[in-house]
Amino acid sequence: MRVEELATPALVVDRQILDINLETMARALPGRRCRPHVKAHKTTALAQLQAGVGHLGFTAATPREVVGLAAAGLHHDLLLANETVDASRLRTMADCPARVTVAVDSIETIGAAAGSGIREVLIDVNVGLPRCGCDPADAGRLADAARAQGLEVRGVMGYEGQVYLHTDRADRAAATDAAMAVLATAHRAVGGDVVSAGATGTYDLNSIATEIQAGSYALMDQTFAPMIPAFSPALWIEATVISVARGFAVADCGLKALGMDHGNPTVNDAKVLLVSDEHLTFRPDHTRRVGDHIRVWPAHIDPTVAYHDQMHVVADDEVVDHWAVDLRGW
Amino acid sequence: MRVEELATPALVVDRQILDINLETMARALPGRRCRPHVKAHKTTALAQLQAGVGHLGFTAATPREVVGLAAAGLHHDLLLANETVDASRLRTMADCPARVTVAVDSIETIGAAAGSGIREVLIDVNVGLPRCGCDPADAGRLADAARAQGLEVRGVMGYEGQVYLHTDRADRAAATDAAMAVLATAHRAVGGDVVSAGATGTYDLNSIATEIQAGSYALMDQTFAPMIPAFSPALWIEATVISVARGFAVADCGLKALGMDHGNPTVNDAKVLLVSDEHLTFRPDHTRRVGDHIRVWPAHIDPTVAYHDQMHVVADDEVVDHWAVDLRGW
Q: Strand locations in B94-217, DSSP E?
């Protein structure tokens, strides 16, 4: 089947570009130096390819992602890089056939983890983004509290997401250094072997972290691609033109097929005018006809993928596989 | 089970507010005067309640919605208010045990419908929104072309979505009248009994349409609620506070649980600072503790619901039902 024969809107992954992205990361950060984040792709078939290039440990944002990775045999070393006090989900993770580590940043999350059979934790430290992570000055105290409850404290984690504000690489490097200095100080108070941090945007800037939680690099967002040219966008939505008017055309790829928090998607050789629930209105720079296919490049991969139940994998525009997006939900 | 015991993030519907919204619409536009649009809720259990107050005809945005409504026994009169040239999906709709009408706005969509066994169509007319719908001057010619291919042309439809730009009711009424004058002219050229148009925002302003395709009124968006005070928001995301810092707290309801195209959600008595994939950072005006629940009100219902596989139905904060969001996908 050719890509043009897919029922639309369809999530499509270019296997060749994906493979190059995975190999580029494996060369830059081999083995344990990268702990791929699955939140962007939510697909165990893709995680298997990441394991295939030597990245056996994974990062997850939800208990469902942890449990699904374990069920797919990717049990080596799974990190829930997020806080939860859901005892039932913590217990499910503790019982799943995998090495599972969870992030904790408070007495409450430590208590929930210890009380649910979780064995290993990282102390999550706020390094500048207003999100989860303890006050750096509290990290040592929390590590002591976790150990007092019988938990193994493997080290620290911190997410320097604020550095994405800097499109200039040197500015991003400086902001990364500042954030990682905070994490290094906290690590001295906590102990353990692991300093887990980072992202695709700092994969080659972060010299403190022992492992980088990179996610976007595999499929690559349009928004961040110009900042991180080592990786290329490998995912688009295949859509069909369903209406053509004077001055614009309409395709069947609306905002229920696209994450919209980073703004409108892009369409090759066209200007996107309007995105509504099931429609994308664009101004073509050449004639489009009803039934033509277009490629819609989402601004943000992660919430786009979460709307779809499968990825269609293509090589040279031939559909070579269908992967279930099997890590959705919580 | 109480609402506070739900695993989070959880899509919650207040049954009492929903019932009031449904009854309000049934009184204002009884029977055939309203053809509820299911795209906002994508839930056949909710559509059954709409049928229960006398709205037996439904509007859909995707073939999947049509086929799912038919499978749920809601077969009276289903309208795909959208264009498609997907022969396989058109055939599935034509074969499903329901009266099915589809919108057409071009020779290509007419040919696809006729060639796939569809029997009835509406001519979709552009009444001002840059989206689907033919040039009004072409409506009569397209109706002739459809009849020449053996299709029954039931009338016209047009969506006056541009009137939502007017928050003032009188301005919205004037814009609705202007759009409907276009549709009425097209209707004279097309013939048939049906003039299908509108939305929750024009349900009591549109005096030309024989039926209103209202969808939002059942669960009601935060963004539009102030404009249309007859209907109240009945849907929120129940979330759990997972981290508390100096000056802000973080809940487990991120942008993979929320449509973000209309902007950030709202949280009672709090200011939303940041929404990321699985986190919502907010500034509380009083102390929140890890484990507390909060209610997150999405700005836009439709793409929010599309991220969830079930709605939890509550009455007086007691969970009384779980409804599958069974019309997702295409």
A: 100-104, 120-124, 152-158, 194-197, 211-212
Distances A230 to A144, A271, A317, B85, B218 between C-alpha atoms, Å:
41, 26, 23, 39, 47
Of all residues in chain B, what percent carry a pLDDT higher than 70?
Answer: 99
Q: Rounded to 5 degrees, what are φ and ψ at A313?
A: -100, 130
State the smallest CA–CA distance between residue B256 and chain A in angstroms. 5
Task: Say how many CA atoms lie within 13 Å of A254 toward its Cβ.
Answer: 20
Strand-pair category, A270-276 with A100-104 = unpaired
Pairing of strands A10-14, B57-60: unpaired
Do the beta carbons of residue B168 and residue B148 sit within 8 Å? no
Cβ atoms of A37 and A81 closer than 8 Å: yes
Interface test with B, best of A66, A277, A279, A281 (most B CBs within 10 A): A277
Phi and psi torsions of A206, nearest 5°: -85, 110
Distance from CA of A71 to the nearest CA of B (A): 21
Cβ pair B86:A8 closer than 8 A: yes
The letter for the amino acid at B205 is L
> Side chain identity at B310, as an amino acid letter?
Q
Per-position DSSP letters for A64-125, written without gaps between them: HHHHHHHHTT--SEEEE-S----HHHHHHHHHSSS-EEEEE-SHHHHHHHHHTT--EEEEEB
Residue type, B232: S
The CA distance from B283 to B271, in Å, is 5
Q: From CA B322, how far away is CA B12, in angstroms rounded? A: 9
The string of pLDDT tens digits covering residues A272-287 is 999 999 999 999 866 7
User: What residue ranges in chain A does DSSP mark as E strands?
Assistant: 10-14, 57-60, 77-80, 100-104, 120-124, 152-158, 194-197, 211-212, 235-244, 249-251, 266-267, 270-276, 279-284, 293-297, 310-315, 318-324
pLDDT reported for residue B288: 83
Given an 8 Å threshold on Cβ–Cβ distance, is A108 in contact with B276? no
List, in order of start, the domains of chain A with CATH numbers: 3-11+231-324 (2.40.37.20), 30-213 (3.20.20.10)
Name the residue type at position B166. H
pLDDT attached to residue B224: 87
ipTM for this model: 0.96
Model pTM score: 0.96
- pLDDT tens for A239-292 read 999 999 989 999 999 999 999 999 999 998 899 999 999 999 999 866 789 999
For residues B82-87, average pLDDT: 98
